[in-house]
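2024-03-11 09:14:02 INFO worker-7 job=invfold-0412 stage=load source=structure_tokens
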């Protein structure tokens, strides 16, 4: 009997590689790691900007709620792009996708580096996000299509670790550059690296099957984008206009209606962007829920803690970035060990241990008088729990699917990973801004602390949900 590894589909809907030889051509290796390098640059500039918000607020004379769109808009645009990557990988040539991604990274980077207003900076960020959204899934599609089965894990782990290093280094890189020179150098310094990675990839990438002529399901795409944008707008308004009808309830209604219509249209389509029947699989749905929640909290913390450190504790951008480095590197180093733990013992052990560690860490964040040493310690603890869950829960979720739904599963995980980060940043920023409402006569320190602890308590609530779902997971035989 053939295994799912022999019959499955990658994120582009192609059959997984059937090769058994361990030989991988030099061109394939260059194309894979060139694309991984370009994706690394995209994620690096994404996370580097989180520590620059106080600087941007002063330079552009605007509020934190406005500046946080520098990250929120980026993540939202990446999520929107990843919705269509499975379709695009079958409809267009891979070289064209790489050229779109590389060109967008360069054009967006130049716009960001030369921006004279917040709106121009946002435009550059969105353009760069589109590039990252096209390139990152292509890294793993190449591995599943062009690397022999017996070494796919090695290539996936190496490329994945390269990309995972970006959020680990991002806050420190951004803080160092901002403190010593200018935040604009965040983009100028990454452009040469991104250009080299782009050229290497486009020179060596090959495609195992010709593109198919397929009609783009534009209505489905518009509906899902409207839903994502409306929900983000609704939640972002909490920190400025509160729960007003025009800015909160109306966009929320638009979200519900758009999602409902999207589900109906998708179910009746012979070429859906995403097969919504995939959510009928309970274990997959639980895995996706955990994945979304822990990404929401993790990205939310990487926004919240650096801004609290600068706005309340008076530290500089370099210090606020450095304090997250130990935790991020801990997570990157533990991820391979966490994967081995799941391989040997199933999902129950890492899910339960990881979710409990996350709950302890977020609980301590919420009840503590935060200082730099305590933030460093608690973030390390949090990242230990995160490493036990994040990659393992995605692997577990995909293992529950039949071969013909693997492409949809990959698209859902990739999209929700980015959108969870977008919502995490949006909501944490909104709650941080409510500190001035809670303590109208307090000092900046008092207001920032009040808003920070409110946001941290939300993290505790979300982590409780993670624990509840994590303890309900069952090891099920792979399809």
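2024-03-11 09:14:09 INFO worker-7 stage=emit residues=479
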């Amino acid at each position: 009997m053939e295994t799912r590894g022999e019959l499955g589909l990658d994120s582009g809907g192609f059959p997984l590689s059937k090769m058994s030889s361990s030989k991988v051509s030099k061109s394939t290796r260059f194309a894979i790691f060139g694309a991984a390098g370009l994706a690394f640059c995209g994620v690096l500039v994404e996370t580097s900007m989180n520590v620059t918000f106080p600087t941007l607020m002063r330079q552009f004379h605007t509020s934190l709620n406005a500046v946080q769109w520098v990250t929120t808009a980026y993540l939202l645009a990446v999520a929107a792009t990843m919705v269509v990557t499975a379709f695009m990988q079958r409809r267009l040539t891979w070289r064209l996708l790489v050229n779109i991604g590389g060109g967008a990274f360069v054009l967006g980077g130049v716009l960001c580096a030369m921006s004279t207003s917040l709106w121009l900076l946002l435009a550059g960020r969105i353009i760069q996000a589109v590039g990252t959204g096209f390139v990152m899934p292509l890294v793993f599609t190449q591995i599943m299509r062009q690397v022999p089965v017996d070494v796919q894990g090695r290539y996936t782990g190496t490329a994945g670790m390269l990309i995972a290093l970006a959020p680990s280094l991002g806050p420190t890189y951004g803080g160092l550059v901002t403190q010593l020179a200018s935040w604009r150098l965040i983009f100028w310094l990454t452009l040469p690296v991104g250009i080299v990675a782009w050229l290497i990839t486009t020179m060596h990438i090959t495609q195992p099957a010709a593109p198919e002529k397929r009609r783009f399901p534009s209505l489905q795409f518009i509906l899902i984008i409207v839903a994502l944008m409306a929900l983000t707008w609704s939640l972002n308004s909490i920190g400025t206009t509160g729960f007003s009808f025009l800015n909160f309830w109306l966009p929320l209604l638009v979200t519900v209606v758009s999602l409902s219509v999207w589900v109906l249209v998708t179910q009746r389509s012979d070429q859906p962007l995403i097969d919504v029947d995939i959510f009928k699989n309970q274990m997959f749905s639980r895995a996706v829920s955990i994945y979304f929640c822990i990404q929401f909290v993790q990205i939310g913390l990487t926004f919240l803690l650096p801004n609290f450190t600068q706005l309340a504790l008076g530290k500089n951008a370099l210090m606020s970035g450095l304090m997250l480095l130990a935790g991020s590197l801990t997570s990157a180093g533990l991820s391979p060990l966490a994967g081995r733990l799941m391989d040997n013992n199933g999902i129950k052990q890492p899910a339960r241990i990881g979710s409990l560690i996350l709950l302890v860490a977020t609980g301590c964040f919420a009840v503590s008088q935060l200082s730099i040493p305590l933030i460093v310690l608690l973030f390390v603890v949090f990242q230990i729990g995160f490493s036990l869950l994040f990659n393992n829960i995605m692997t577990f979720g995909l293992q529950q699917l039949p071969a013909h739904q693997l492409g949809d599963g990959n698209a859902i995980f990739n999209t929700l990973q980015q959108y969870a980060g977008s919502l995490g940043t949006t909501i944490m920023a909104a709650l941080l801004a409510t500190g001035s409402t809670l303590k109208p006569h307090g000092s900046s320190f008092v207001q920032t602390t009040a808003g920070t602890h409110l946001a941290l308590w939300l993290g505790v609530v979300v982590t409780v949900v993670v624990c509840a779902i994590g303890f309900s997971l069952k090891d099920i035989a792979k399809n």
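2024-03-11 09:14:09 INFO worker-7 stage=report msg="The mean pLDDT is 83."
2024-03-11 09:14:10 INFO worker-7 job finished
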